Amino acid sequence: MKTKADDSLSYFMPGTSGNGVILVHGLTGAPSEMRLVARQLWRRGYSVYAPLLAGHGKDAATLRRTCWRDWLDSVSEAITEFAPEVDRTYAAGICVGGQLALMASEDQRETVQAVGLYSPCFTYDGWAIPKYKVFISRQASWISKMPFIGLLEFSETPSQGIKDERARRLVAGAAAEGILERFPASSLAEMYRLGREMRRRLPFIHTPTLIVHSREDDLASTDHAQYIHAHIGGPSELHLIDDSYHMIHVDRQYRDVADQTANFFESCHAA
Q1: Which of 217, 240, 238, 239 is closest to 229 using CA atoms?
Q2: Mean pLDDT score, 235-243
């Protein structure tokens, strides 16, 4: 399988079992952040495709020119490109990436067998988020309509979302691999709009779904995971873990996350 000529960040790892999984990175992230989980799944025989979302991998100005529908189109296109390479197709993603994977998979239910949703987040409300930022996050929709607000950018520190010191250092050095250090305010509004649309669709989504969230998540409370588990229209399993922050796919328990994902995909619930 070949990635697009102008995309050097996406990657494909051919497996041996006939199972294949699309791994979707998070907002301001890049396919490189999915490599730890990708390797674990590849060792279990999975073919892995980690696509780059629209607007990502370059800079904040490029990301600002895209919306959540563009990101969703990226995942849908990735599913279409990847499915012929394997016998059974699955999808998983972190935070916004997981929500995009779930929505795109429901649109292609005949193709995608099941989905893994890591640390879902509609708005930032974790224990490490100051109250004023929680308020801003929840008001993102109307704040985004204020003149020039979309030009604002926020810095993200390597310590956010990661409990393990070694993992923090690895992510801190990943700017060359497409992970952005600046967060456009307009993208926060798009994340809110994506979450609103997903909540609207949840009762009509029947794709078997695994939800993995950390009780110690510093950016998003477990309320988001519990809401999805309670309102999704199809079968779902909720697993809460205890020794990671938000970025569970790179933090201390990434092996557990990968194993839970593969076990769910291979279970009768996802048959």
Answers
A1: 238
A2: 97
Q: Is 81 helix (H, G, I), strand (E, B) or coil?
A: helix
SS (H, E, C) 89-111: EEEEEECHHHHHHHHHHHHCCCC
Q: What angle is formed at CA 153 by the lines to CA 152 and CA 154, rounded to 5 degrees?
A: 135
Q: How do strand 182-184 and strand 153-155 relate by DSSP bridges?
A: antiparallel
Average confidence (pLDDT) over 92-116: 96
Amino acid at 264: F
* pLDDT given for residue 128 in this prediction: 82
The token pair at 228 is 């999805």
Cα separation, 156 vs 119, whole angstroms = 18
Q: What is the largest CA-CA distance in the chain?
A: 53
- Mean pLDDT (whole number) for 160-172: 84
* Location of structure tokens 């529908």: 69
How far is residue 205's CA from residue 40's CA, in Å, rounded to a whole number? 28
Contact present, 182 and 155 (Cβ < 8 Å): yes
What is the three-class DSSP state of 124?
coil
* Other CB atoms within 10 A of residue 267 CB: 13
Q: Which residues pair with 182 in a beta bridge?
A: 155
CB contact set of 86 (below 8 Å; sequence gap of 6+): 15, 18, 19, 20, 47
- pTM comes to 0.91
Domains with residue ranges and CATH for the chain = 11-270 (3.40.50.1820)
Residue in the block written with tokens 């801190």: 172
